[in-house]
């Protein structure tokens, strides 16, 4: 019995470690021919596993001068992972680092 | 006039996250609607002039910035205006009517480039015109103007730096808008007048402006010369090299080296990446590019993988800094993981235009980059010294050998007839810095002359810059004083690093 309990504990610890490691990973989305400029990192807090109001979860990029976003990277910081862990996922802070698109033109006439 | 967008106070970090500053305001410049290139140049230059005059009046330091690519703190300014140019990214072709009567360059070879156009955009524009650049750096995301300002180079052994393409510079100071060319005119007086610029035709001032380290004014546009379009065949492989191969490279026996590891012909580009912990028993990463005629039927290569996991190198570096165990193995793993396995001599030929020899680049967290440039004939004498010293310092980066000829510009680090550039690129951890310092000390102790890259970690100061560049430094200072005679104008471009280097 003690043996199987130990095995179970080890599996649960590994599952937990796996979850922490997985949250450390990042994901990136970029336009095909990037022309990045400016940008910043914003942190969005998702409360109550997403059941709380949507308003707190969506924000606007207001500094891209009407040309849109060049690329975005989604990740969680170390402290955010710990907070997520100790609150059983109730508080989940996701960071989005984005850069704006500087535009692209063909060669013009001098 | 250009659009001037103020984003207010913020903390700004450079592209590689190696330097940061508190800004009074981050400012973006953007093109407005104009009928042609010269009107764009005039509008932007007048906006920059007004901005610089305001900065001088209120004693606000200004730092013009492209992509903020340089890992050295050359691109940060405390409590000042950081003026980003990346939206000024238009390029323009010229006609024979725009060219000066004394100019011996055909109009179709010339390309007018705004200050914020990235290296990638310039490559694309050149290809759109059926042209090509001769050389470039390892990346393509930096602004072309910024790459020239710091003397970025690749490993085309018969070419110098990227600034060698430049034939004229539009430069704005708090007092004037200038068009700087060599004594032999390039563009017509009429054309230059329509860009709103005063003409300076002087070989010495032009050579200073070709590589100005951001300390001669605000570059708003450049005129560059391109080559007829060509392609290159890429051979990239991991192979064990011997000590005698370093001697071949020292003597410039590039064909012999290529014959041993690549194709039996003279390479256009040749580069080696070595594991300093075991340079001859671990496999080195070799890259050769061979010039080929342009063939429109060859499709461009697919874009490289981008994205997740790019912090892995930093994590590996931190692991290596903590322990001496398996350093060589860890570094070898990091070196080989990103190297393609299908570019060997027997693989189907990988041929692309020059513009496709670099891949799109995403920010890599906190990288260390340092380099030393020296007379190529000193490579054999210096190689073991460099590797031993770097290892003694605990260096956690790969060591890359690149080869270039004498580059243009008074402050070009590659100022010997033939140069080898030894790069140390890796995670930004203390052991990388220590390893690099040991290399610098060892070369000094051995009496081997060398210079350092302006845009990389370099630990330079005014005394050392004067010693490294001697009369060229004095000539550069003279040129700077011709462009900005008033010290108050020069102070507008001051930041801590440029003052430390003695350039402001």
Description:
The complex is a heterodimer of chains A (110) and B (504). By secondary structure, chain A is α+β, with helices and mostly antiparallel strands. Helix content of chain A is 29%, strand content 33%. Chain A has a 4-stranded antiparallel beta sheet with strand order 1-3-4-2, with helices on one face. By secondary structure, chain B is of the alpha+beta class. Chain B has 2 domains: 3-228 and 477-500, Uridine Diphospho-n-acetylenolpyruvylglucosamine Reductase, domain 3 (2-Layer Sandwich), CATH 3.30.465.10; 230-445, Vanillyl-alcohol Oxidase, Chain A, domain 3, CATH 3.40.462.10. In chain B, 30% of the residues lie in helices and 24% in strands. Chain B is built from 14 helices and 21 strands. Chain B has helices spanning 37-57, 119-128, 144-149, 189-194, 203-210, 243-250, 254-261, 312-322, 327-337, 379-392, 430-445, 462-483, 487-491, 496-500, and strands at residues 3-6, 10-13, 20-23, 25-30, 62-65, 81-87, 91-93, 110-114, 131-132, 166-172, 177-181, 198-201, 218-225, 227-228, 230-239, 269-274, 284-293, 350-353, 367-375, 398-405, 418-427. In chain B, the strands form 5 sheets. In chain B, strands 18-15-17-16-20-21-19 form a 7-stranded antiparallel beta sheet. Chain B has a 6-stranded mixed beta sheet with strand order 7-8-13-10-11-12, with helices on both faces. In chain B, α5 (203-210) packs across α12. The longest helix of chain B has 22 residues, at 462-483. Chain B is globular and about 60 Å long. The A-B interface holds A 25-30, 32-38, 40, 63, 65, 71, 73, 102-110 and B 5, 7, 10, 26, 28, 30, 36-38, 40, 67, 84, 86-87, 89-95, 98, 111-112, 116, 118, 120-121, 125, 128-129, 141, 191, 303, 306-309, 311, 360, 362. β5 (108-109) of chain A pairs parallel with β7 (91-93) of chain B.
